[in-house]
Amino acid sequence: MAKYKSTTVIAVKHKNSIAIGADGQATFGNTVAKSNVKKIRKLLDGKILAGFAGSTADAFTLIERFEEKLSAYGGNMKRAAIELAKDWRLDRVLRRLEAMLIVADKQEILMISGNGDVIEPDNQIAAIGSGSMYALAAATALKKHSPDLSAKDIVEESLNIAADICIYTNNNLIVETL
Prior knowledge:
This protein is α+β, with helices and mostly antiparallel strands. About 35% of the residues lie in helices and about 30% in strands. It has four helices and twelve strands; from the N terminus they run βββββββααββββααβ. The longest helix has 17 residues, at about 55-70. The N and C termini lie far apart (about 40 Å).
């Protein structure tokens, strides 16, 4: 049976700003199922941004659980991420979910996986999804060699470069900033 595959999500912290963006493509097997999926969510009254890659239903489940953890831990993003990762790894139902998250507040970016990983990237760039390595490479070069660009500019250009290379990524972008 064909599986849904999709996306590129990238977050960049640059010049005291954080931007997170994603393309809009979802595929079913080798067919584009939808071209304008919204994969970025504002949480905690817009103080935290979350992006997802993988199964949409699984990602929504994880975002809902993450919001519950945020409420339980007074909006502490890192603590909520760690507690979600613990649950995700240990819970039999959650363990089967096929998605990844990037979450960001004004201070930091975190990647959360079902393996129990909560990763704070060294270079303040995080990327997930099918085109993640293309976008990560582009953002790394842009951040290093184009210091005048904003975080939003770097995210947009990185996603456009990934879309030119990755068949599971398109140019219908949504970018949010903090």
